[in-house]
Design goal:
- The protein has two domains: about 130 residues, no CATH class; about 110 residues.
- The longest helix has about 55 residues.
- By secondary structure, the chain is mostly helical.
- Helix content is about 80%, strand content about 0%.
- It is built from twelve helices and no strands.
- Helix 4 packs antiparallel against helix 5.
């Protein structure tokens, strides 16, 4: 029963990782075309740590991390899992330690079957470490690009931690699209920066227009506001152009993949290729080769 609960927990965490990597539901159309940009690293979530990366997972099918074909563990992480298993089930940990020395491949299979709880805990730790790293990177970027905002945010950290988290969330929402675009080296970054500057100026002018009583001053402000709105319109067109160019690139890549897939399909339809592959598979089965997984 405990193993079943452990497996459910591991699968649930994997689902959370995948869900966290998916883009949020679309809001305004122009947000879809530029402001809600996320880097590939963000969509993937945390990858393996440094060092060697043995494959691992429950049974012979390891959980899939977001953006990765397989979830991989370092040897140091396997040691930690073994230590946790040792505290929970000393006898099983001893058996696996011996198996690790004699049959490394079988060891990984058995470790996956018997260490669901430890594996789930490791996934939680890795995800939290990744979140903290992404937060630190964003705050460093904010300090370099918008120091006033960074100082205002930092002043809340010790004084009011709850308010700090709220302010950080709203700051990430406001500046995050620019940060993400810069990480991708996208031309969208400069467009978003300029649009944010114009939007703030737009709000400032509207406030002044509503409060001023001087007619000449109001006309002057109205003229400037018209220029700002016109500039923002040009930026909207630029954002749409960037989105269009990105779609064209993705379409080209998809067309290339379709051609490659078609060529591969035609290749394997050849009777000689089929015969050669069947013979090779039979040879592998009869020789019981290790390291090849057909299933």
């Amino acid at each position: 029963m405990a193993k079943v609960r452990g497996m459910i927990l591991a699968l649930a965490i994997a689902a959370v990782l995948i869900a966290a990597a998916l883009p949020c539901p679309a809001g305004e159309k122009d947000r879809r075309e530029g402001q809600n940009v996320r880097t590939a690293d963000e969509r993937r979530g945390p990858g393996p740590g440094p060092g060697e990366r043995p494959e691992f997972g429950p049974g012979d099918r390891p959980p899939r991390g977001p953006g990765r074909e397989r979830f991989e563990l370092t040897n140091e992480e396997i040691d930690r899992i073994m230590e946790g298993l040792k505290q929970r089930d000393p006898q099983k940990a001893k058996e696996l330690a011996e198996l690790r020395k004699k049959e490394p491949e079988k060891f990984k299979f058995e470790l996956g079957r018997n260490a669901h709880e430890e594996f789930a805990k490791l996934m939680e730790e890795r995800m939290e470490k990744w979140r903290q790293q992404r937060r630190a990177e964003f705050l460093n970027w904010l300090e370099k690009n918008y120091p006033r905002e960074a100082r205002s945010l930092a002043s809340l950290k010790e004084r009011d931690p709850n308010l700090y988290e709220q302010k950080l969330s709203s700051t990430r929402e406001k500046y995050g699209p620019i940060y993400d675009a810069e990480r991708r080296n996208s031309p969208l970054a400069e467009v978003l920066k300029e649009d944010l500057r114009l939007k703030e100026r737009e709000d400032e002018l509207i406030g002044k227009i509503k409060t001023t009583t001087d007619q000449k001053e109001k006309e002057k402000l109205n003229a400037e506001l018209e220029d700002v709105v016109a500039d923002r319109y040009d930026l909207i067109l630029r954002r749409k152009q960037i989105a269009y160019e990105r779609l064209l690139k993705e379409l080209e890549e998809l067309q290339n993949r379709i051609k490659e897939s078609q060529a591969e399909m035609l290749k394997y339809q050849d009777s000689k290729v089929k015969t050669d592959n069947v013979k090779q598979r039979l040879k592998d089965l009869l020789e019981e080769k290790k390291g090849i997984r057909w299933d």
